Hints:
The chain has helices spanning 30-46, 50-55, 58-84, 86-94, 96-124, 131-169, 236-239, 255-262, 273-286, 298-308, 348-356, 363-380, 383-388, 390-400, 410-420, 445-456, 509-518, 521-527; strands at residues 182-191, 200-210, 216-221, 292-297, 311-315, 319-321, 337-339, 342-346, 401-403, 426-429, 534-536. The protein is an alpha+beta fold and 537 residues long. It has three domains: 15-169, no CATH class; 184-307 and 389-456, LCP protein (Aminopeptidase), CATH 3.40.630.190; 310-383 and 497-537, no CATH class. The protein has a six-stranded mixed sheet with strand order 9-4-1-2-3-10, sandwiched between helices. Helix 1 runs antiparallel to helix 5 and helix 8 (255-262) crosses helix 9. The longest helix has 39 residues, at 131-169. The chain is elongated. The N and C termini lie far apart (106 Å). The relative contact order is 0.10. Mean pLDDT is 84; it is low at 1-11, 193-197 and 469-502.
Amino acid sequence: MSFSSPKVSRTSNKPPVLTNPVRYPEAASAPMRSKRAWMLLALTLVVPGSAQIVAGNRRLGRLALRCTLVAWALVIAAVVLALLNREAFLNLFTSPLTSLAVVVLLAAAAVGWAVMFLNTLAIIRPALLAPGMRGLVGGALVVLMVLTSGSLGYGAYLLNTGRNAIGSIFASGPDMKPVDGRYNFLVMGGDAGAERIGRRPDSIIVVSVDAKTGQAATISIPRNLQNAQFSPDSPLWKAYPKGYNCGDNCIINFLYTDVTEDHKDLYPHAADPGAEAMMDAAGGILGLQVQGYVLVDMAGFAKLVDALGGVKINAGGWVPMTGADIPGTTSHEPPIGWIHPGVQKLNGNQALWYARSRQWVLEYSRSQRQQCIQQAMLAQMDPATVLTKFNAIADAGTKVIESDLPAQQLGSFVSLALKAKSHDLKRLTIGPPDFPVEFSTYPDFGVVHKRVQALLNPPAATPAAPKKSAGSSPAKAPAAPAAPAAPATTADQAPAAPATPSDTPAVTQQYLQQLAINGDDEMLTALLANNGTCSPG
């Protein structure tokens, strides 16, 4: 019996690098190594884990590939959800719990992608590359990591910032339900200046939004409105069964401080009894049920406008930036500046003055300007602006905004706000130009309720009657003589603006300032009568 030695195949002794330069680049040519490096970077960019499958640790590659496929599935599901149910999609990013989950997933994806790029660099083995190519590949790796992991990490940071802002501003509680198909929110501009006792909401606006279409209307209540009414089920009915009707000491913007200091026991479970009282008062005045409030601290309002990058408006008239009080009088020093008419972008301080100034004009001109500023700010809240300035907006918001709107429902309200952009904003002021000047002192709430309902639920347009042929139409009776115009005495008529003298020189800032120095209040009242006119720029 003989034994023979086994034959060794020459092909089995060939270095594997010759047959698989992607996995074994040692003996590959320099151009091949460069191509391999760029290919592996591209694979990690497009499908993290695939570079490891073809040239590295296959076990790690399979794990990364599974994570990549799950991530793409989640992205596709999110896109489908956004297309089919935008409200549910927005709730993912505004709900405290789901937004936390998204933050964690984004952070994990950022770290995981960075790890895969670094592992890919190890697989590339830069020492095998030509000296010049090492720098190019290393630079490209840094850029790709910034674009991928950096973007995901920054997205997680922004989302977490927004999540913290939502938690600081908004409440946790049950969802709000629409009433008669509408959401009614009270938006107040609170002013707690050093010379004031407590906070007073000088800007009082109810925003009513159709829960389905997003059609919105704003209704301004003048700060000096008297005799505010309360429904029998309001806690304030016990303190003011006949309304808040003690004359000049009971104008509506005193109610906030009054309840906060003397009647907070009426709202034992409220975080802000004064705001709850203002909601009850606004609801009684307008004949609506107000479900929530947003209170903006006017002292910090300028920060929010600056965070937006300013607000663009088309101002109709000159607006003074009122000078300091003269001690012992109700007068002021000459204005410290003027906001001129025309299209312009106001910074935070100018926007604050534009919304607050009421010197030489009726209170209602200020209400019109406040509505205009709000409308202009909403118009600028487009996704691009919010994304690029998100951190500043969120930081400013936590300092100046307080609200009882439920945080978990913000997605629904954001969706409604987006729908509202496709409709014209309806507006009503419980005072001039929609009611006479004296109306706020002697309000007829029955008339107010009818006007509000007509604004929110206009009657359906009746179809025009078909035209009759010329031969069959009866002869028309002679037209009755036109009745003389009646003076503006009804609730539907606005007082005429004072006429501007025709012999005045051109109105300039210098001319207006000199009138203020001279104390010519009559001329200034005439020249500034139109400064409530405004539209978003």
